[in-house]
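Whiteboard transcription, Tuesday session. T.W. wrote the structure tokens on the left side:
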């Protein structure tokens, strides 16, 4: 069964919505992206992207030029003739850690009585189990199907991930509706797994929780290796040959953050407690991550005090939660910087793309060279290639001190040692 060139409405133009909408238009569908932020819509139309994603701006421009991609703030007109409506809305944690579904509820209430028979609503937002059923109840239309289709796009490589997915998960109680949603992705080549909505919703949470758990394990292992004198990079390399463990998500770092892992682990842990099935491993992963951020801040503190003490000029390299994205939400780099600012008052920071922060508050400068010049201590907290590509000799020439805390393990210790620079990382 083949379905092509369908009319699609995308509700929300964040990381997921804008990428999904643009890439679906690239596959040949007629797509209208909707956002209540009028200025944001105007900026996108003008080619100003609200997010940093490689290749996205070109696809958005191409889609607008060929008429396949439109942007509007008029919700109801956008969905009036849509065969498929994607919900790509924020679900931030509330005070108890539960996912706040108010944005989804509000949109679903707007849809009541306004959707054409046969419309399929596709929930791409990360939501607790039974959310598809909740949307169905709010819309109250037996001729409208609600399908779960969780996203697995990594910030910084979202366009690549859309066209080269590991799998596509679809949750539907109606097989035909599930197959129609699957057909939207013709042109991508991967396993398509159709299951029930509750299982699909659970898959998304479990995937993120498992990855966060894996990262927490690696970071704890780094601390262990630091205590016993082992090399964490060698230990993880040795583990990676075991196919039961795999080679991904074995890189230690300053902690995990971003828009997904912190929010989703807290939401899953809160919901598990709510149903009387607490997931203590996930709870511990959250606590472990919080402790690890403090541990990295302590390491930087120790290195700074060994330099010239509280008067040390510290250069923080990286503010986004990981490389190739401008997202600073729950960024461990920012958290570590904030901890250090309580003690050290001569800190500068640099990030090539980070958005949404007060540059003055973090004494942000405009280039890597400006940041490291006269620094008594350099701290790498985000793995931007720019930091690794900068020559060891250049660091040595510009810095006042001779120590770099590499919390991302991107620098070659031996190469820097030849320039008289000591690289300090946990477990290496």
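and on the right, the sequence the group agreed on:
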């Amino acid at each position: 069964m083949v379905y092509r060139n369908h009319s699609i409405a995308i509700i929300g133009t964040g990381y997921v919505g804008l990428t999904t909408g643009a890439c679906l238009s690239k596959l040949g569908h007629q797509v209208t992206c909707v956002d209540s932020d009028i200025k944001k819509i105007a900026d996108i139309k003008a080619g100003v992207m609200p997010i940093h994603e490689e290749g996205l701006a070109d696809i958005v421009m191409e889609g607008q030029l060929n008429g396949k991609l439109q942007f509007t703030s008029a919700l109801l007109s956008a969905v009036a003739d849509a065969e498929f409506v994607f919900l790509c809305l924020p679900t931030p944690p509330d005070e108890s850690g539960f996912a706040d579904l108010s944005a989804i509820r509000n949109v679903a209430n707007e849809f009541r009585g306004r959707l054409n028979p046969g419309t399929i609503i596709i929930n791409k937002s990360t939501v607790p189990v039974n959310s598809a059923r909740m949307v169905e109840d709010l819309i109250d239309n037996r001729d409208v199907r609600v399908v779960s289709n969780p996203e697995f796009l990594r910030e910084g490589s979202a366009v690549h991930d859309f066209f080269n997915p590991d799998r596509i998960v679809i949750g539907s109680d109606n097989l035909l509706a599930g197959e129609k949603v699957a057909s939207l992705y013709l042109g991508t080549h991967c396993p398509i797994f159709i299951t029930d909505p509750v299982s699909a919703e659970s898959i998304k949470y479990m995937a993120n929780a498992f990855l966060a758990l894996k990262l927490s394990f690696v970071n704890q292992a780094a601390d262990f290796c630091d205590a016993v004198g082992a090399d964490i990079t060698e230990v993880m390399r040795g583990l990676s040959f075991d196919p039961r463990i795999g080679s991904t998500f074995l890189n230690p770092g300053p902690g995990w953050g971003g828009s997904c892992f912190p929010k989703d682990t807290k939401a899953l842990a809160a919901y598990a407690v709510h149903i009387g099935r607490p997931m203590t491993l996930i709870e511990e992963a959250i606590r472990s991550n919080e402790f690890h951020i403090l541990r990295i801040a302590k390491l930087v503190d120790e290195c700074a005090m060994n330099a010239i003490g509280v008067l040390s000029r510290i250069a923080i390299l990286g503010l986004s939660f990981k490389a190739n994205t401008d997202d600073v939400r729950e960024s461990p780099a920012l958290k570590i910087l904030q901890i250090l600012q309580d003690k050290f008052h001569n800190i500068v920071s640099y990030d090539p793309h980070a958005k949404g922060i007060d540059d003055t508050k973090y004494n942000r400068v405009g280039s890597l060279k400006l940041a490291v010049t006269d620094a008594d201590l350099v701290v790498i907290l985000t793995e931007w290639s720019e930091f690794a590509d900068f020559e060891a000799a250049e660091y040595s020439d510009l810095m006042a001190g001779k120590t770099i805390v590499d919390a991302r393990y991107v620098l070659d210790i031996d190469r820097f040692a030849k320039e008289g620079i000591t690289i300090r990382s946990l477990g290496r």
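Someone added at the bottom: The chain has two domains: 7-195, 231-424.
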